[in-house]
Every structure is written in C-alpha cells, then in structure tokens.
Amino acid sequence: MKRGPGARVRVAQLTGWMTLIAATACADFQADESDCELDVPLVRLPSELRETSGVSAGLRNPSLIWTHNDQGSGPILYALDRDGRIHARVEVNESNRDDWEDIARGRCELGACLYIAATGDNSERRDVISFYRLAEPEGEGEQTVDAERYRMVLPDGPRDIEAMYVLPTDQIFLVTKGRNHPVTVYRYPLPLRSEGTVTLVEVQQLTDGPVAAPRMRTGASATLDGGTVVIRTYQSLEFFDVTEGGVLVPTGEGPVDLRPLREAQGEGVAFGTDGEIILSSEGVGFGGASFAFLGLQSELSCSPN
Questions:
Q1: At the topology level of CATH, where does 5-302 sit?
Q2: 3 state SS of 65
Q3: Domain boundaries, the chain
Q4: What residues contact residue 64 under an 8 Å CB cut-off, 6+ apart?
Q5: Under 8 Å CB-to-CB from 40, ≥6 apart: which residues?
Q6: Residue 91: φ, ψ to 5°
Q7: Residue 100's pLDDT is what?
Q8: What is the C-alpha separation between 193 and 292, in angstroms, rounded?
Q9: Residue 133 in 3-state DSSP?
Q10: Which residue, among 204, 215, 220, has the nearest Cα to 27 in the 3D structure?
Q11: Confidence at 274, pLDDT banded by 50, 70, 90
Q12: Dist CA 209 CA 40 (whole Å)
C-alpha cells in the first residue's frame, strides 16, 4: 500500500520530535533508568480506569479519547477529554466480557467505527479470540450500544495479543506480544463475517524469537489513510511504512525511548491530530493510570554523565 500525501506530511511532522526523543534511546534497552526527562506531564486518570489498556482518538469528536479497562471490569468504553475527565460510559452489548486489550478507530459503512480487540491470553490457551466493531457512540452520558462480534483463530495456535490496528477499509491487523514466540503480524481475511470463525493469515514476523518483557508489544495504531503504523512496547515506540499486502517496513526513525516519561506500565498508543501521539498507561503500585500526549513541542532534558 502506498502512502498518500497526507501520510508523508504526517511523518514529516513527527520527524522533528522523534529525532529529539530518540537521542535518549539505548541500543539494547537495558533495564536501567534513563537520565533524561520529557517535559510532557502525565495526565492522571480516575481510579475506575486504573487498568486502562487500549486508547484511540475519536473520529466523530477528535477532542475526545476512547479507552477501556483490562479484563474483569465489564464491557465498558470510556470517552475522556485531554484532562482525563470522563464524558461518557458506554456499555457494549454482545460482549462476553473477555479480555479487552486494544481499541482502534476507522471509517466504515457506518460512518465512524471503533474496533475492540478481545484477544488477551497471558497463558496462551484460548482457541478462539474475537474483536468487536461498533459505530462510534456519542461521547456524552451513560448509554448502551450494540456491537458485532467477529471470532478468530490463529493458524499456528494460541498467542497472547495486545495490539491491533485498522487500515482502510475494515482491514484488521493484530500483533502478538512476543511472550513465547516471535512477534508476529496477522490480518483478518476480508470480508468481515460475524457468523462462524475465521482463520487469521500471517503477514510477517517482526522478531526472530520471543522478546524480553520490556520489548513485548502492547499497543498499535495506524494513520487514517493507512500509510503509517506505530507499535509500542512497555518502553518504546517504533514507526513503520505500510507496503503492498500490509507488510510493515521500519521508517528508520526510532525506536523512540519512552522511559523518560516514567509511565507506570505503558500499554496503549494512538495517532491523534496534527501528528500527535497519545499514550495510555495502566496503574501499578503507587503509580496511577495515565495518558500522555507527545507532539512537536515535546522537549527533552538530560542530566550530565
């Protein structure tokens, strides 16, 4: 897939701050702390979102951000503003309350759609996983909405999956975490079918084997034109160009070291507006759940060696 002019502009916008942040990256990503800090405040989230996982900017209202909790908190989507205030709680019908891990946006025949990856599988024992598609709700108040459930199996057995992105139109891609096997990208073969179970198709492997915990993939997002994909780990970002067949090719900028943000447990990533990157983090210990917004004005300060 070729990138259009909009994607090239977006990547150009990202390059300025990406180069700055990448200066802090350690080649081997050791577990030690970074000596640098970003002047990006973490936006603390309400306690009911302590296990916030996936994140997506809205299409109907780009000023709102959609997120959800991890397993065990009920099938609820939350719409928040940039200050972390909850504007809407949306219960999703047809959900079996399984392990929601990521959320993505995209244009569809319904107008604007949200896609929820119900794919978490720490023990890698789930034979059937799912994603849900729904028209993006109004971002205010308490409501209940309907969603279609799409069941899937992997061609090579169960895998833990926490990252999903969507390319135009309704092209669903999932990225494994890399817990016990190589980090692998799969796609859902179109058309979407809510009846029966569909076998995913392997697109590519991004690593030669399993990865250490800090490098496990926990979230992904695509630009609306489908030209660029970002995948995050607990402590870094990597950007890809999308080529024919959905194959990802590293852009060459990054990996971007996120450790200076001091997130409690980085989980989600999303493209916002004007080249901005939105990050979500679960709460761990005394560190609460948070959002962070990385953009052209992000600045870096480092202590001397």
A1: Neuraminidase (2.120.10)
A2: strand
A3: 5-302
A4: 57, 58, 79, 80, 81, 87, 88, 139
A5: 261, 292, 293, 294, 298
A6: -85, 135
A7: 93
A8: 35
A9: strand
A10: 215
A11: confident
A12: 34
Distance CA 63, CA 86 (A): 12
CB 77 within 8 A of CB 114: yes
Peptide bond into 169 cis (omega under 30): yes
| The two three-digit tokens of residue 153, written as one number | 């199996």
CA–CA gap between residue 4 and residue 29 (Å, rounded)? 33
CA 106, 107, 109, 112 dihedral sign is positive
Q: Tokens 């030669």 — which residue? A: 208
Q: Is the pLDDT of residue 12 over 50?
A: no
In terms of Cβ atoms closer than 10 Å to its own Cβ (0-12, 13-18, 19+), residue 81 is: middle
According to DSSP, the β-strands at 171-176 and 161-167 are: antiparallel
Which of 24-28, 38-42, 282-286 comes out lowest in average pLDDT?
24-28
Cα 255 from chain centroid? Answer: 16
Cα–Cα dist 291/300, whole Å: 18
Burial of 66 (0-12, 13-18, 19+ CB in 10 A): buried
Tokens of 64: 């709102």
Q: Which amino acid is at 31?
A: A
- pTM of the prediction? 0.88
Q: Is cis: bond before 250, omega within 30 of 0?
A: no
Peptide bond before residue 191 is cis, with ω within 30 degrees of 0: yes
Report which DSSP code applies to 14: H
Provide the 10 A C-beta neighbour count for residue 191.
Answer: 7
Secondary structure element (H or E) that encloses residue 5, with its range: helix 5-22
